[in-house]
Amino acid sequence: MNARHCLFVRTVVAWTVLCAAAVFSLWCLNGAAFSAWMSGGPPNAYPHGWALRAQGQLAYAGAAAAAGVGLFRLIRVLPRWRRFSIGLLMAAFVLAVWPSAHRALLQDKCLDSGGRWNHDGRQCER
After folding, report:
1. Dihedral (C-alpha) 116, 36, 90, 96: value to the nearest 10 degrees?
2. How do residues 112-125 score in pLDDT, each as one tens digit?
3. Could you list the residue range(s) of the whole structural domain that residue 114 is in?
């Protein structure tokens, strides 16, 4: 495989990864907007749960965007590693883990205070 062909393959892969990350990010943003609307819009039994879901989906959208840009930059310059690209991937990891960690902390806080965690509503019941 010559250098020109290798560059072409890397470019196609980089753009494919970036486009896939953009589509997933937009999908998560759509879900976050709907969840935010549900948390304050029509009356429902779980407004806090919808707000928590919106925050999580917004974090996933940011994680997908950061990961897409970071991977795009890394794939284009391989085998060199750029600090900014690595920083973007680390930020994506933190954003991807944050919703689960935050929910676990809320569940722990609820159970420690004597409440019962409602998994469907994503909120504490006392």
Report:
1. 50
2. 998 888 888 888 88
3. 3-125
User: Into how many domains does the chain fold?
Assistant: 1
pLDDT(52) > 80? yes
Phi, psi angles (nearest 5°) of residue 63: -65, -45
The whole-number pLDDT of residue 1 equals: 61
Element (H, E) at 9: helix 3-40
Kindly indicate the confidence band of residue 23, based on its pLDDT and cuts at 50, 70 and 90: very high
Q: Where are the beta strands (DSSP E) in 1-126?
A: 116-118, 123-125
Question: Which residues 6+ apart lie within 8 Å of 9 measured at CB?
Answer: none
Q: Are 47 and 54 in contact (CB under 8 A)?
A: no
